[in-house]
Amino acid sequence: MADMTTGWYGNGSGNTGVSYTVDGVMFAALADNIGAVFNVPKGTLLEKATIELVVNVSSDFKASGGNLQPVAQVLNTGEAEWGCWAPNSTLGDASDTTITCKISEAGKLNQIVNDTKVGVQVKPGANPLVGTVTIKSVKIILAPPSSSSSSFSYSSYDASVASLKDLKAPEDLEVFPIGVAVGNTDSPSTNILTNTQEQALVEKHFSQMTAGNIMKMNYLHPRNDTHTLADYDFTNADEFVDYAKTKGISIHAHTMFWHSDYQVPDFMKNWTGTSAEFLTTVDEHVTTLVNHFAVSGNVKSWDVVNEALTDDTPSDYRKSPFYIASGNSPEFIERAFKAARAANADVELYYNDYSTENNGAKTDMLITMIDDLQAKNTPITGIGFQMHLYLDYPSIANIKAAMQKVVDRNLKVKITELDVSINNPFSNGWSVSTATPYDGLAQKKRYCEIVEAYKATVPEELRGGITVWGTTDASTWLNSFYQSQGLTDGEVVSWPLLFTPQYGDKPALRGFADALSGNACTNL
C-alpha cells in the first residue's frame, strides 16, 4: 500500500500541487494531464504489476465529463504510460470508485535501471475540466518473478550468512569495520533514512557506512561568502551520521577534496585569489569539517583527498581546480592532511583512489606521492584502494603487490569502494547479456579471493577495513557510469554487488563470508 500522508506531488504542466486530507491526497483538476503521483524507486519491479486505486471525484468534476487515467512512467522522461482508462461513466458522483489497472507495456519500466512515478491524471470530457480528485488509496500488486530474469533473481538462494559483520569479533570491528556505501537525500530510492529494506540489510550485515555523496565538499561547503559556518550546510549529513550512531554504526567520511566538476563548489572552481589565500581556505575547510563531525563520536575516518592522480603512463598529479589554485602544485594535499590532524588527533586520515590496485603506472605515482608526504612528516594514516574490479581483472598477484607497497611504508590499507562487475567492457565487452547462476558463482569466488588477498597481505594492525560500494545491484553506480561513457544504453550489465535488487542474497555474499571465516574460495 502506498503512503497517503507523504511523498506525493503534482504532475503535469500548470498543476498546483497536492494537499493531504483525512481522506487521502487531493489535487485540482485544472487541465489535461494534470494529476498527482509518487515515486517508486528502482528495485521494485513494476513490469506486469497490477495497480488498484480508490478515488473520489467531486460533483463538478463528474458533471464536466472528465475522465481519469492511471499512469506509470519512467521518472523524468514520461516514457511507459500504460493504456488504462477510467471513463466518466464509471466514476461515482462524490463517492468512491475502485480502479484496477495492469501494467502491460513490457520492457519500458525496467526498474533495475529506472525510478518511476505512479499516480492518476485527468483527461477532459465534453466540458472544460473543473473540480477536484481525491486519491484515497493505492495498492501495487507485483507480478511473480520471471524465470528468465536477468537480475540475479535467486528466489530460493540462501547464502547462510546470518550477519557479515558478526563474522568478525566485536573487538575486531573497531579496527576492521565491514562497511557499505548508502544514500540519503541524494538517492531517494535507497535513502537509508526512509527505505526500510535498506535499513534492515545495512543494520544486519555492516558495522560502518559511507555516504555516497552528501559528505562531499559541494554538499557541505557550497559557499565561501562569509568564511563562517553560514557557508556550510550540514543538515543532511548530520541526519545520516545521527542515524548511524543510533544503530551503533561508525562512519567513514567521504570526501574533503574531489575534482569531479559537479562536486567542486563554484568558489573553488573559479578561484581568483592567491595560492596562499587558497591554502588558507583549505585549512579552514578541513578544520571546519573535522571539528563539526568529531562531536558525533562515530566518524572514525576520512577520505581527505580523493583521486588526485591521473590515469596516464606515467601518472602525475591531476591538474584539478585545487592543484591550479595551489599555484599549480599538489601542496593542498599536504595542507589538508596537516589541518585534519591538527583538528583531531584520533581520526584516521586516508588518501583514496581507483586503479591503484593494478600495480601499474598509477600505483608507481601513488608510492611517489606517499614517499613525498612522509618525507614532509605529513600525518597520513593510510591509503584507500577503491577496488572497482572485474571477474578477470586485475590479477590477485597485482592486487597483493600494490597493497604490499603501502604496507611496506607502514600505512594502513582500506578497501573503500569494492564492487566486482561481471562484464568487463574494456576487455570482453558485454559478453554476458543475462547474468546466470554460473556467473554468480564465478563472482562468489572472485569476492572471496579479493578479501582473502587483503587478509593475507595486510597485517592486522594495518587493516582499515573493507567497504562495499552499494547494497543491491539496483543501486550500483556502474550502470549509469557505463551509460555516461557511451558504453551502454542503460541496460543492466554489471551486477556487481552482494545482494539482488529485491534485497536477496547472492553467492557473492557467501564468497565474502568465506574469506572472512577462513574458508576455501570456490565457485561451488
Distance between the termini: 39 Å
User: In terms of per-residue confidence, which ranges show pLDDT below 50 for 5 or more consecutive residues?
Assistant: 145-152
The number of helices is 14
The CATH superfamily of the domain at 8-141 appears as: Galactose-binding domain-like
Instruction: Record the strand order, biggest sheet.
Output: 10-11-12-13-14-15-17-18
Q: What coarse outline follows from CA principal-axis ratios?
A: globular
Question: So what's the CATH class of the domain at 8-141?
Answer: Mainly Beta
Average pLDDT across residues?
90
What oligomeric state do these chains adopt? Answer: single chain
Described by strand count, sense and barrel closure, the largest sheet is:
8 strands, parallel, barrel
Query: Mind telling me the C-alpha Rg?
Result: 26 Å
Strand content: 15-25%
Question: Structural class given helices, strands, pairing?
Answer: alpha/beta
Q: Percent helix among the residues? A: 25-40%
CATH architecture name of the domain at 8-141: Sandwich
* CATH overall fold name of the domain at 8-141: Jelly Rolls
Overall strand count: 18
Folded structure, characterized:
The chain is α/β, with parallel strands linked by helices. It has a domain at 8-141: Jelly Rolls, CATH 2.60.120. 27% of the residues lie in helices and 21% in strands. It has helices at 59-64, 170-173, 196-205, 217-220, 235-246, 266-269, 275-294, 321-325, 331-343, 361-375, 396-407, 437-457, 478-484, 507-517; strands spanning 8-11, 19-20, 25-28, 35-40, 50-57, 67-74, 96-102, 116-123, 132-141, 178-182, 208-211, 250-258, 299-306, 348-353, 382-385, 388-390, 412-421, 463-468. An 8-stranded parallel β-barrel has the order 10-11-12-13-14-15-17-18, surrounded by 6 helices. The protein has a 5-stranded antiparallel beta sheet with strand order 2-3-9-5-7. It has a 4-stranded antiparallel beta sheet with strand order 1-4-8-6, with no helix packed on it. A hairpin with a 4-residue loop joins strand 2 (19-20) and strand 3. It is globular, with a radius of gyration of 26 Å. It starts with 7 loop residues before the first strand and ends in a 7-residue tail after the last helix. The relative contact order is 0.11.
